[in-house]
Amino acid sequence: MTGNVEGFDLLVVGGGKAGKTLAMDAARNGKSVAMVERDMIGGSCINVACIPTKALVSSARTLRSLRRAGDLGVHVDSPQVTPESLLKHKTGVVEGMVAINHKQFLDSGMDLVLGRARFVAPGTVEVELNSGGTRNLSGAQTVINTGTRPSIPPIPGLAEAGYLTSNSLLDLKRIPQRMVIIGGGAVGLEFAQMFATFGTEVTLVEAGSRLLPREDEDIAQSVAELLTRDGTRIVTGTSVTAVRREQGGVHLTLSNGISITADDVLVATGRAPVTSELNLPATGVDVDDRGYVVTDEHLATSAPGIWAAGDVAGSPQFTHVSLDDYRILKENLAGGARSTKDRLIPYTIFLTPELARVGLTEEQARAAGHAVRIAKLPVAAIPRARTMRETDGVWKAVIDGATDRILGVSLLGPEAGESLTTVQTAMLADMPFTRVRDMIITHPTMTEGLNLLFAAVKG
Ligand SMILES: Cc1cc2nc3c(=O)[nH]c(=O)nc-3n(C[C@H](O)[C@H](O)[C@H](O)COP(=O)(O)OP(=O)(O)OC[C@H]3O[C@@H](n4cnc5c(N)ncnc54)[C@H](O)[C@@H]3O)c2cc1C
Ligand SMILES: NC(=O)c1ccc[n+]([C@@H]2O[C@H](COP(=O)([O-])OP(=O)(O)OC[C@H]3O[C@@H](n4cnc5c(N)ncnc54)[C@H](O)[C@@H]3O)[C@@H](O)[C@H]2O)c1
């Protein structure tokens, strides 16, 4: 370390959702705040994750709607996408949000330090500035919010053959003719359906016995059927054993003996924490065996005055969870004891139609010893779905037979992420399912389906 150390009330290392929100908040409240960000103003979500992918999901949905417009009595000539037009749309959305974030950062009064931070002493980072030179910063309180990056499995030949990640695929230099996606989680599925709609021949290879292992088997099966219908070839229970680039494409050998040739391979096998380059031993912050920062339920690390938030802290990997980590830190940095325990965390996988879930699945509820009552509703039974001619999907509710409380729902259907919030609200309010069953809901909306779903509770 060379030069002076500049001290701040709050030092935020990595400007993800939790860190940037906390930094702005503290700065607006008169604290001296430095936030170090190496390259993405606004963090992963708006640059390379949620926002650009959902911008492209919107493109795929529009393309799909135009292709089936004839079913709704609307005649359009053959709609087209090009990599250039998609890139322009995606970049426009991202740049707009980055500009808003940048202005908010500066307006808050924080010291936005663009560069790469690494710890050099307890509570002190050295920042290699993007503009050249270094600065040494320390915080009375420090928050680590450096996120995750794509995790790449050690498949023989993969590195030599070259591969895409969710980051590089979003550069959209071209729309591949044939693409193999390794990994059937949220990233793999959203890209598979999107690119299948854009015209790519997609094969998705999942090592587990089914897609989406965190979902009930019947729901995962329905998702697989929808993706297959939309043109994705799904291979489960199989891993890629070797990859080789040859003339004519990339050649993949699978553990079931099948071989596939594609133009591109997208690796979507999960995420790895951004911690190895932070030199955490210098500040006494422990990491687990996968490299995630170890925190207690208050998001405190093993080092006094140092906290962690978001993906890097092992929190469930969603932007809205990172935002909730900010709420927790805001209280706890001021001496509170807010906890990450028992959070009710919803999520939506932005397929068409969406898969939205909150609470327990049937499998989880039974494993936890609940005497469950189940309801299932085909989306085709919801009048709004009929008006849109979007009748694919199924809604499922899991009810505690002893208390009539809603344990969880899985909603696979159009705009399911919007209807989900109504159920989440009922769960937070500890309402019995009968309150939602008998609630007067606007007709004809998708959320009205909740009347029908809860009317179908068996037993
Ligand atoms: C393709 C994809 C789609 C997704 N879609 C959704 C979605 O629709 N909805 C949803 O809720 N979640 C989605 N997620 C998950 C979501 O993006 C993450 O959970 C969320 O962005 C995590 O935010 P974070 O606060 O942990 O940090 P991040 O937003 O990852 O920010 C960390 C920041 O730290 C910076 N940084 C790292 N190291 C250093 C260093 N040494 N010095 C300075 N700065 C550093 C990075 O540049 C980065 O800006 C998606 C993820 C992916 C990959
Ligand atoms: N809409 C959303 O909210 C959204 C969208 C995308 C991502 N995310 C978040 O990002 C996180 C990361 O997503 P992800 O899809 O990369 O990870 P993931 O962990 O959700 O899924 C990875 C999948 O890859 C499989 N896999 C692992 N190694 C493999 C191998 N060698 N061969 C074949 N399959 C293999 C796993 O079995 C798993 O099903 C998610 O957990 C989610 O929280 C959220």
TrEMBL record:
<dbReference type="InterPro" id="IPR004099">
    <property type="entry name" value="Pyr_nucl-diS_OxRdtase_dimer"/>
</dbReference>
<protein>
    <submittedName>
        <fullName>Dihydrolipoyl dehydrogenase family protein</fullName>
        <ecNumber>1.-.-.-</ecNumber>
    </submittedName>
</protein>
<dbReference type="GO" id="GO:0016491">
    <property type="term" value="F:oxidoreductase activity"/>
</dbReference>
<keyword id="KW-0274">FAD</keyword>
<keyword id="KW-0560">Oxidoreductase</keyword>
<feature type="domain" description="Pyridine nucleotide-disulphide oxidoreductase dimerisation">
    <location>
        <begin position="345"/>
        <end position="450"/>
    </location>
</feature>
<dbReference type="Pfam" id="PF02852">
    <property type="entry name" value="Pyr_redox_dim"/>
</dbReference>
<keyword id="KW-0285">Flavoprotein</keyword>
<dbReference type="InterPro" id="IPR001100">
    <property type="entry name" value="Pyr_nuc-diS_OxRdtase"/>
</dbReference>
<dbReference type="InterPro" id="IPR023753">
    <property type="entry name" value="FAD/NAD-binding_dom"/>
</dbReference>
<dbReference type="InterPro" id="IPR036188">
    <property type="entry name" value="FAD/NAD-bd_sf"/>
</dbReference>
<dbReference type="InterPro" id="IPR016156">
    <property type="entry name" value="FAD/NAD-linked_Rdtase_dimer_sf"/>
</dbReference>
<dbReference type="Pfam" id="PF07992">
    <property type="entry name" value="Pyr_redox_2"/>
</dbReference>
<feature type="domain" description="FAD/NAD(P)-binding">
    <location>
        <begin position="8"/>
        <end position="323"/>
    </location>
</feature>
<comment type="similarity">
    <text>Belongs to the class-I pyridine nucleotide-disulfide oxidoreductase family.</text>
</comment>
